[in-house]
Backbone:
């Protein structure tokens, strides 16, 4: 599921274009691309032509001509490229402004980049989601983005939207989706072990589906412990390093973890009980499971007792 790319194919080799600004970006790209092909082809043909025309043979009088200066030529090959470059600059600048200045009525969503997943917060409804971003179709959306650790970069290929996400500072992008469906979000800045799996899906919904989704996501935490644990597993990003299906990620899987014997880097071992699990969440560096890197952040102070219990209860259900 996570490895299946949702980037939809489009024209030539560009991905499909499904936002209001993506066609502008493509047009400028194709303009620059075609002009480059035209000039490169022209130069190649002229070079080949001259090769033969001025070839040094006994009976070719043209081979003796020595040109040193030609005003008309000099002005021509300076002015024409200048005009082309100015067109590209002006066009690019106008489209760049469209990309960076969001409309006043844009819906604001907060995006947080963390090693190694994306978190989304919807201020209008108080809803939160992890790994899945929901937006309504035909509505400008402004993403206010920040990172809690290192530099990440937020990229939606089908929307031609990409921006660095930095710690201690906000950056933003905006887009208006023109088509309902699911689209791939990538992290495009190398950010550590889990960079390549720092993926998320953008779901463009109809206005009414979006409203329902927001209601569903903003439901309270009044849940049984194991269900709360399942929610925290996503919300706290545990899933980005620990699988629940036995597959190997940055950290050990949670499947069959409870009650199993753990072997550590220092040669010791322990049975994974409640105390071991709690310690591993709060002080992950204390016992390093053999064969895994010591990269997990401490969750001390980030989870309260109920939440710690919930995660442990959830792990117990994974047999
Ligand atoms: Cu985050 Cu790469």
Residues:
């Amino acid at each position: 599921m996570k490895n299946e790319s949702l980037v939809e194919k489009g024209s030539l080799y560009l991905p499909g274009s499904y936002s209001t600004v993506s066609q502008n970006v493509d047009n400028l790209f194709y303009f620059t691309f075609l002009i480059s092909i035209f000039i490169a082809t022209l130069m190649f043909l002229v070079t080949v032509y001259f090769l033969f025309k001025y070839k040094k043979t006994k009976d070719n009088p043209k081979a003796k001509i020595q040109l040193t200066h030609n005003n008309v030529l000099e002005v021509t090959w300076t002015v024409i490229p200048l005009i082309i470059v100015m067109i590209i600059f002006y066009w690019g600048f106008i489209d760049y402004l469209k990309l960076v200045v969001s409309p006043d009525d844009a819906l604001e969503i907060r995006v947080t980049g963390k090693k190694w997943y994306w978190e989304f917060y919807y201020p209008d409804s108080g809803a939160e989601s992890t790994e899945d971003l929901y937006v309504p179709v035909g509505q400008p959306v402004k993403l206010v983005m920040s990172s809690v650790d290192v530099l990440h970069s937020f990229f939606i290929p089908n929307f031609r939207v990409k921006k660095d996400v930095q710690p201690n500072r906000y950056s933003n992008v905006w887009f208006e989706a023109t088509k309902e469906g699911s689209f791939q979000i990538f992290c495009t800045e190398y950010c550590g072990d889990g960079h390549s799996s720092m993926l998320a899906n953008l779901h463009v919904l109809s206005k009414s589906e979006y409203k329902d989704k927001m209601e569903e996501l903003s439901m309270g935490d009044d849940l049984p412990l194991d269900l709360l644990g399942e929610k925290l597993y996503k919300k706290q990003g545990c899933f980005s390093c620990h699988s629940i299906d036995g597959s190997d990620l940055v950290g050990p899987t949670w499947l069959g973890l409870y009650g199993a014997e753990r072997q550590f880097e220092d040669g010791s071992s322990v049975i994974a009980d409640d105390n071991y699990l709690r310690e591993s969440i709060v002080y992950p560096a204390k016992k390093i499971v053999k064969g895994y890197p010591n990269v997990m952040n401490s969750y001390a102070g980030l989870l309260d007792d109920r939440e710690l219990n919930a995660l442990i209860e959830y792990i117990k259900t994974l047999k």
In short: The chain has a mean pLDDT of 89.
